[in-house]
Design goal:
There is one protein chain. This protein has 441 residues and is an alpha/beta fold. It is 39% helix and 13% strand. The chain is built from 17 helices and 9 strands. The protein has helices at 24-27, 66-73, 87-100, 112-121, 169-174, 181-187, 192-204, 216-225, 244-258, 270-278, 290-298, 333-343, 346-356, 369-372, 384-392, 404-421, 425-440; strands at 49-56, 77-84, 107-111, 156-168, 211-213, 281-287, 306-310, 318-325, 359-360. Strand 1, helix 2 (66-73) and strand 2 form a beta-alpha-beta unit. Helix 8 (216-225) packs antiparallel against helix 9 (244-258) and helix 16 runs antiparallel to helix 17 (425-440). The two termini are 22 Å apart. 55% of the residues are buried.
């Protein structure tokens, strides 16, 4: 979710992009003021305003130098960021602050796995951004996720997670598999079932101590994310027990665990990072933000040993993404909405993409050279700007539910148990459903 993209996964790190530089005019955009924002602005005796931004993991604003740039454009405004490493810690605190109406930042990061719950239960506590941002600028499904039934928009889109497949060319070559992007894409063109077949091919000649994939739970998330209907239906009913996408993902995860195609590592934990560094993982389901995780944790010693191709199957998938919202209880609502508009404009999203690899949700960024011509040197100069933009434009509009994140995390935990502890699939599924039912009621 913006991180794991499960939710815990958002402690992302920097991915170095080879792009053309940002132009001065691109970053010298100013935002229009809100037509209907509250006017409870707070400044000191000298008219100086400090705007606070609370987020989780890594949104990339610091790395892209955007807060400093905003101060240059608006000398009376200083932006301070308060970052929580783990979104699972961040979100309960946000709910407490919303319930009490105190302690909120001027701008709050909102995870896609939580957005439906916030839209349904907390929308009246956020400023309406529908007249501040142009929702048509974003991929069609993005802003719908943050929009209430009566048209109120509680969050402006930041990044999205179009899916790809990252693979270790060094391990593929040693296992006798093709390493060319197009050839690898062809091997898995039939979908995630083909991906497992490729895994069986890899296993036959795999270098000792290596595994085809890092985590079956990651594959599960990728499979589910490629479907419009996931854990809830249009009426808001939880359907995860009979959802075709959940069943497909679960069955494939169980097969991967049974055939020992996975190293069974919970993503982003220390053993997972160590495995990347040691080069024991051949493939990783790779939403856009994952490239940064791999490059940082695999380290310089593995530069050039990785590549990126399109994800298995013909259906595009999105895994993760976030929003920026402005709580009404904040001290600087009007100025906060201006900052949000500026941060989510194409040029600023392109700057974040260049800095850390978070792929823009604002489609205006896709034609900017910083995105369109982007390659990743670490991944054999993979043309990620092209790969991710093509994916982003064809991702289906998904149905979100209030407890998507909790359901996903609980199922992922039980998949990890199948991998690590040898838990039987039926027992793992029973444990998952019992835990989920207690959460969703």
């Amino acid at each position: 979710m913006r991180i794991t993209r499960t939710v815990a996964g958002r402690s992302r790190r920097v991915a170095v992009l080879a792009t053309t530089g940002l132009t001065a005019s691109a970053l010298l955009l100013t935002a229009c003021s809100s037509d209907d924002s509250d006017s409870n602005e707070s400044s000191d005796a000298n008219g100086k305003i400090t705007l606070t931004v609370a987020d989780y993991g890594q949104f990339g604003y610091k790395e892209a130098g955007l807060f400093e740039k905003y101060h240059e454009l608006h000398p009376n405004i200083t932006v301070k960021e308060d970052t929580t490493a783990d979104e699972k810690v961040y979100y309960p605190k946000l709910l407490q602050q919303l319930n009490s109406g105190s302690g909120l930042a001027d701008v709050q990061g909102l995870e896609v796995g939580r957005i439906k719950e916030l839209v349904d239960t907390k929308a009246d506590q956020f400023a309406d951004l529908s007249k501040v941002i142009d929702v048509s600028e974003f991929v069609s499904w993005k802003e719908k996720q943050a929009t209430t039934a009566d048209g109120k928009v509680i969050g402006a889109g930041t990044d999205i997670g179009p899916m790809s497949l990252c693979y270790n060319t060094d391990l593929f070559k040693k296992a006798g598999l093709p390493t060319d992007r197009k050839e690898v894409a062809a091997k898995v063109s039939g979908g995630w079932e083909d991906y497992l077949k490729l895994g069986e091919e890899y296993k036959k000649k795999a270098p000792a101590g290596t595994y085809f994939m890092d985590s079956a739970s990651a594959m599960f998330n990728a499979v589910v994310s490629s479907n419009a209907k996931q854990y809830y239906d249009e009426s808001g009913k939880a359907i995860y027990k009979e959802s075709p996408s959940v069943k497909q993902g679960w069955d494939l995860a169980a097969e991967a665990a049974d055939k020992k195609l996975t190293q069974g590592l919970a993503q982003f934990n220390d053993p997972w990072k160590a495995a990347l560094r040691k080069g024991t993982i051949a493939t990783v389901a790779c939403p856009a933000w994952m490239a940064g995780q791999i490059s940082v944790n695999a380290g310089d010693a593995n530069k050039g040993k990785w590549d990126i191709t399109t994800a298995p199957g013909a259906t595009a998938a999105n895994w993760g993404g976030s929003f920026l919202g402005v709580p009404k209880a904040g001290k600087n609502v009007e100025e906060a909405t201006k900052l949000v508009k500026w941060l989510t404009a194409p040029e600023q999203q392109a700057a974040v993409f260049k800095a850390i690899g978070s792929f823009p949700s604002n489609t205006g960024a896709y034609e900017l050279p910083e995105v369109k011509n982007a390659t990743l040197p670490y991944f054999n100069d993979a043309p990620i700007g092209q790969i991710y933009a093509d994916e982003a434009k064809s991702i289906p509009e998904t149905i979100l539910g209030p407890k998507d994140a909790a359901i996903k995390d609980t199922i992922s935990t039980q998949i990890n148990n199948m991998e690590q502890r040898g838990t039987k699939p039926d027992d793992a599924w029973e444990a998952a459903t019992e835990a989920i039912d207690k959460v969703i009621g």
